[in-house]
Known about the structure:
The chain is an all-alpha fold. The chain is built from eleven helices and no strands. It has helices spanning 3-31, 35-64, 66-87, 95-114, 118-121, 124-138, 146-163, 182-207, 222-238, 247-274, 290-312. The longest helix has 30 residues, at 35-64. It is globular, with a radius of gyration of 20 Å. It starts with a helix and ends with a helix.
Amino acid sequence: MTPAHKLYWLIGGVVALLVVASAIGRILRARVKDEKAAAVVDNLNARVRAWWWMVAVFAVAFLLGRNVTIAMFAFISFFALREFLTLTPTKIGDHRALSVAFFIVIPVQYLLIATSWYGLFSIFIPVYGFLFLPSISVLAHDTESFLERSAKIQWGLMITVYCISHVPALLLLDIPGYAGADPLLMFYLILVVQMSDVLQYVFGKLFGKTKIAPVVSPSKTVEGFVGGAISATLIGAAMWWITPFTPLQSAGMAFVIVLMGFLGGLVLSAVKRSLGAKDWGAMIEGHGGVMDRMDSVSFAAPIFFHATRYFFT
């Protein structure tokens, strides 16, 4: 089976899963009478509807090829950075640096992926962005909370651009015997991350009693994490056939993705709490903003990329 055929089968499988989820959601909504339970079902149905749109966008990008996929993630980073900086307001003195971040740093970072320039891609934001963006801000001669303001911009760039850009960066990897199949690795990463998030939510609602971090994220429970992590790891292991991994290696990689995704969600929930916000935005019905969907990905993608690059190229 060619990589393209595998991708078609995967997309078809996800669509079939969404059809089943949509049908179950309608049945549950018709039968549930309790107000609290109805609110949970409505939330799940909103998530399923949003997933229809997100899967459609991702599928079209993947099917149209490498450059369209890279461009799609560049737009995701753009909107994610906008959400991040909207919740962490800056001052007039930072406007030049912000313009550079949005209209130079993001395009260059993704252009480096498109041109397969791994050496510069891996250090462009952590080194050059780290040094030059505060240098631009300082020219405005505004020293009030300068360290805090610079840290917000740099941390936002690292999370929303540098980390997320490691998803399409999987297209850079030259894995022996896996030529032309790199888009499948992207699909694998995103599916494991998102299935983990969904299953942790479901297990938490069904069995959750012991809260992991009640101040940071009251909805996250030990039971939800364990049930979701085990289920998503098994799903990752079952998808070994689209990866360069053995079933056992695929399970290990899936567990790493799940663990890092969980930590990403927890850390960025702490950031939201510190800013007094529930969601990063309202762009996606039932999911909040772009960063509410990409928080787990932002932590999982760099680790998955470098683990794959180190062990399999």
